[in-house]
């Protein structure tokens, strides 16, 4: 029972950043813009969150600053992909390199030449922090999870409501499926896509912040280490839906929990092999399901009015 509860706790902890970033991928691709730059956006978000939190002492300020910083990086992707109709895959790859490069430059600038930030003294709170509980109690420690976990699930629910229960969500889906038809109905295709790509960056930045000031206590060049690409795989595996992406992220989070649990029991399998489990699972999922998933028809196709 203890191992099961511990696995649940670790799974949710690792799933939250993935869910936030995957939601960003969903909203961007639903509007017709491929966002491979989630990794870079998560990285800049993680750096800004740790830096702002360290100097201000306010983790919430760091959390929202991370979203703003990643949103600005997403704006560059939007300008290249929407206004200049550049290849969206190439632009996303450039964003990944740019996000990591800017993060390392800013870390060295603010932390005396170091690529790691200093540990933040105050992390984002846990959901039961207002209670006086005993961490030795497995039930209390399991459900006293990071606040980013309920935030991630709440945002997933709100995105589902937005996409499938509101006229604005219908417009987003229309732009991603038939932008020409949407344009003839008076929908601003460029405006919708800009808004969705920027929102994608904000959510990815929140995911990066969930790693640096909730999961751990600092930024390092490896703090994201492929989580953006795993989130992108979750978007595909989840068939470009919020609930599907959440399910995929929980699966990947469970794979990471196996790494932690098996690595802590003196397993005969080398730790390097265990660390490969989430990435191997990502490759397997893409091989098995990418052919069965149908993306929005206009996903990745630049739109030119008229």
Keywords:
306 residues; mainly alpha
Structure description:
The longest helix is centred in the first third of the chain and has 29 residues, at 2-30. α2 packs across α9 (189-215) and α11 (242-263) runs antiparallel to α13 (277-289). The protein has helices spanning 2-30, 38-56, 59-83, 88-110, 138-143, 148-165, 167-177, 179-184, 189-215, 227-237, 242-263, 271-275, 277-289. By secondary structure, the protein is mostly helical.
Fold topology:
Blueprint: H1 2-30, H2 38-56, H3 59-83, H4 88-110, H5 138-143, H6 148-165, H7 167-177, H8 179-184, H9 189-215, H10 227-237, H11 242-263, H12 271-275, H13 277-289
Care to give the gist of this entry?
This protein is 70% helix and 0% strand. The protein contains 13 helices and no strands.
Overall radius of gyration: 19 Å
Q: Judging from the principal axes of the Cα atoms, what is the shape?
A: globular
Mean pLDDT: 90
How much helical structure, as a percent, in the residues?
Answer: over 70%
- The arrangement of helices and strands along the chain is HHHHHHHHHHHHH
Q: Uncertain segments of ≥5 residues (pLDDT<50)? A: none
């Amino acid at each position: 029972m203890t191992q099961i509860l511990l696995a649940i706790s670790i799974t949710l902890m690792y799933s939250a950043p993935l869910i936030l970033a995957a939601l960003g991928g969903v909203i961007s691709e639903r509007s017709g813009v491929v966002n491979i730059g989630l990794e870079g956006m998560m990285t800049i978000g993680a750096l800004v969150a740790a830096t702002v939190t360290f100097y201000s002492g306010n983790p919430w300020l760091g959390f929202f600053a991370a979203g703003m910083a990643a949103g600005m990086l997403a704006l560059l992707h939007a300008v290249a992909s929407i206004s200049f109709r550049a290849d969206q895959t190439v632009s996303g790859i450039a964003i990944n390199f740019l996000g990591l490069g800017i993060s390392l430059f800013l870390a060295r600038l603010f932390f005396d030449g170091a690529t790691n930030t200093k540990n933040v003294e105050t992390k984002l709170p846990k959901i039961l922090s207002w209670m006086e509980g005993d961490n030795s109690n497995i039930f209390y420690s399991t459900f006293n999870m990071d606040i980013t976990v309920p935030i991630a699930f709440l945002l997933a629910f709100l995105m589902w409501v937005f996409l499938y229960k509101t006229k604005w969500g219908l417009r987003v889906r229309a732009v991603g499926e038939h932008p020409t038809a949407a344009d003839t109905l008076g929908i601003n295709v460029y405006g919708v896509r800009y808004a969705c790509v920027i929102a994608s960056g904000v959510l990815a930045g929140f995911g990066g912040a969930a790693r640096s000031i909730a999961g751990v206590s600092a930024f390092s060049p490896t703090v994201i280490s492929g989580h953006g690409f795993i989130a992108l795989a979750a978007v595909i595996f989840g068939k470009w839906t919020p609930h599907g992406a959440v399910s995929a992220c929980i699966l990947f989070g469970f794979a990471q929990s196996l790494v932690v649990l098996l690595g802590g029991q003196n397993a005969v399998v080398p730790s390097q092999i265990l660390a490969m489990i989430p990435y191997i699972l990502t490759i397997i999922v893409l091989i098995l399901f990418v052919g069965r998933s149908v993306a929005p028809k206009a996903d990745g196709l630049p739109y030119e009015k008229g």
